[in-house]
Amino acid sequence: MKPLLFILAAFFLLAPRMVDAREATSSARTYALLIGSNRAGSGQSRLLYAHGDARRMAETLTTLGGVAPADVELLLDPDEWEVQSALDGFEDVLEAHARRDEKTVFIFYYSGHARSTGLNLGPDEFSLKGLRQRLVNLPATVRLVILDACQTGAFSAVKGATPAGDFSSNSVSDLNVTGMAVIASSAGSELSQESPKLKGSYFSHHFTVGLKGAADVDRDGIVTLSEAYRYAYHRTLSATAATAVGRQHVILETDLRGKGEMPLTFPGRSASALELPASLEGDILLTHVDSATVAAEIRKVKGEIYRVALPAGAYEGFVNAGGKKGFRCAVTIASGRVTGFDIGRCEALRLEDADAKGRDVVYAVAEPVRHPRREWVMLELQLGYLHGTDSTYTRRLEDFGYRGLADGKGLAAGLGLVVSPLPFLSVGFVFAGLDRREGHSNLTGVEQDVSWKGWRLGGFLRGNLTLGRRLFVPYVQFGAGFARTELTLTYNNTTGRGQTTDPHKGFFVSWGAGLQVNPVRWFGLTILQVEYVLAEVLEMTGTLDEAHNGGGLTVTTGVRFGY
């Protein structure tokens, strides 16, 4: 019994420390110099996305990597002097930490043009040999160099560099490694490439997506250096395999010493994230709606759950499920929670083929599709038949000698504005006519005509049921609002012809059902809508208590235009 008690006591004493070690970030302070250079050197074309690559790396490190924004310096289109000056500043800061025996990590990132001899900073060239020497001499505990440029694999030839023996271990309780690691986007003889679809370079995009959680293969909420490298290697190689330029092989060389894996980001602690279910399979491209930038491109394997840390907001996703099968999905990531991805609410697309030169696959609606996109705002025009009803009011007027009022048949017309905050729920506003009637009387020898016409203005709630991936949408709706009818009395007598108009105001309620068809985006048809309107606005004055329903049964059809 005593050995068992001892083991239990030791477990409860050590378990909190184990959890703390697992959840704590490295005790080292991290600094980063990030460079994005679109400028071209001699014989080169200006790049388009290097600035965006560097900005996204800065955002990823500060939001998920625990790096303080004040410890990150971002240089866009610098010359060699600016880079050297920035390195001088970091060298002073790191030296101060070293004197206090404090551990530090320094990250150097570059996206831009390069040749096998150096980084091309416009007309300047920062030699790879000189850069390597500067970074090797920095007094940081660990230096991580990330180079996204052509032929930068030549930089990674660090003397004596071999993969660390314990590199695959997963202890993150402290920074138990020292030395230098280099990741290059391409081998010494290869060219690195940008992607118009990704609006960034292939390597930088996949590397940052991996840091956001896609590379977290053991699902512990931590992305380590080896996980990020393996993810970027396979995704970059796969993405560039069919391009005209050719494949890129991401290079990793290290002279890291000691035990323990090096954590880079902690997506498990993100305030918001997108979770891809185990049943989902295919290539997923996720674009941020407001900025129109690609947030992630992920190759999802069936049977595994992926969680990617992303800022809260509206996104549009494209899913290539293989062959010509694809989907477009509207995704809203909520702040402070994990948002699920439901492909059942996506619209089906036909995927256009890539051309022989290896361009990216184009996601587009090439023909009327089975699953049109759900519009947020629709303008509806309705026209049809109104069958009014007799009432105590019309019968009383018949007793007074008026004829022709019993015919309540007429034209029904309406204009509606519909907003759809959810696929199954719409909120609308409607302006429509009520019944129109005319009667004539000559009972007392005095010619008299009576007529009325009315309208209604109100709102409604509509519940939608989608069939055939929103091609057919049956619905039910309930409405209420304001109604007005004008009663006009025209008479001829010995004094001449006279006319009086009496407005009657009140309220209406309505209920009905219909069927819509959405053959293409932004346009639809209301095949049939049947609705009953109760608007007892017209009333007798005096002691008589008769009222008339200016509504009745309406059967309409119409068109819908949306956005």
Question: What features would you describe in this structure?
Answer:
It is a single chain. By secondary structure, the protein is an alpha+beta fold. It is about 20% helix and about 45% strand. The strands form eight sheets. An eight-stranded antiparallel barrel has the order 24-25-26-28-29-30-31-34. Strands 1, 2, 3, 7, 8, 12 and 13 form a seven-stranded mixed sheet that branches. The protein has a six-stranded antiparallel sheet with strand order 17-16-19-20-22-23. The N and C termini lie far apart (about 75 Å).
Fold topology:
Elements: H1 2-23, E1 29-36, H2 50-64, E2 72-76, H3 80-99, E3 104-111, E4 113-115, E5 118-121, E6 124-127, H4 128-137, E7 142-148, E8 177-184, E9 194-195, E10 200-201, H5 202-214, E11 223-224, H6 225-240, E12 251-254, E13 257-258, E14 263-265, E15 273-276, E16 282-288, E17 293-300, E18 306-309, E19 313-320, E20 325-333, E21 338-340, E22 347-352, E23 362-364, E24 377-387, H7 392-399, E25 409-422, E26 425-433, E27 437-441, E28 448-464, E29 472-493, E30 496-520, E31 523-534, E32 536-539, E33 547-549, E34 552-562
Parallel strand pairs: 1-2, 1-3, 3-7, 7-8, 15-21
Antiparallel strand pairs: 4-5, 5-6, 8-12, 8-13, 9-10, 11-14, 15-18, 16-17, 16-19, 19-20, 20-22, 22-23, 24-25, 24-34, 25-26, 26-28, 27-28, 28-29, 29-30, 30-31, 31-34, 32-33
Helix pairs in contact: 2-5, 5-6
